[in-house]
Amino acid sequence: MTGVEGRLVGKVAVITGTASGQGREAALRFADEGALVYGCDIEPHSAQQTVDMVTAAGGRMISAHPVDLTDEDAVATWIDTIGACHGRIDVLYTNAGMTTFAPVSEIALSEWHFVMRHEIDLVFLPVRAAWKYLCASGNASIILVGSTAGVTGSLTNSRLAHTASKGAVVAMTKQLAAEGSHHQVRANCISPGMIRTPQSEATLLDDDHPMRTIESSIPLGRLGTPADVVNYAVFLASDESGYITGTNLMVDGGWSAVLPG
Fold this sequence. Notes:
The chain is an alpha/beta fold. The chain is built from 7 helices and 7 strands, in the order βαβαβαβαβαβααβ. Helix 1 packs parallel to helix 2 (44-56), helix 3 runs parallel beside helix 4 and helix 4 packs parallel to helix 5 (160-180). This is SDR family oxidoreductase.
């Protein structure tokens, strides 16, 4: 901790998928800004490592692991445990997600359903379970994670299911902003571009993938980092964004704004 009062002091923040990548960065940053962080993940060992890192840095974090965010009962139990402790949730950051890629002609129905479960259901279930606690906050922020894939097509990545699911997340943001407005619950979306994480390194940035050279097409000339995404999440979680709801910000170095070349 820096010793300076943080931007999230006193807030109860729930973050999904905190075992690595953007979720781990979010847990560290939110705790450093003074929030009491509740995290979860399906990977228990890595999830506990995140807790240890937060604690070593002087922050406060409680993690439930493993938690299957596609399991309705498991999600409700986890969220209700938090709600019972505090009577409210101030921030819900639905960071977790998992996808597969395949051309339209090769997508099996089981693969399609897998992506919908792991990119839509695991957003919907925590939001629904936390809704009454978010409404009880009186000043709550929901942060969803979309993608450039949710607003653009791609010539180099066959991703119809991923595009559909992330487009749905962007659309959900608008409706959550509408329904949350009656309860002072704000909802916003962050849509990252190409972010260097363990998951992207193993897929889209692999040596055999056509997107491995995508850095040359990004106007700012580099791949994004988890910190680039979480910088904006901290702002959305804080009272500084108190007049912002229903937005979708592209955190992509300008990738979606200009044509390559």
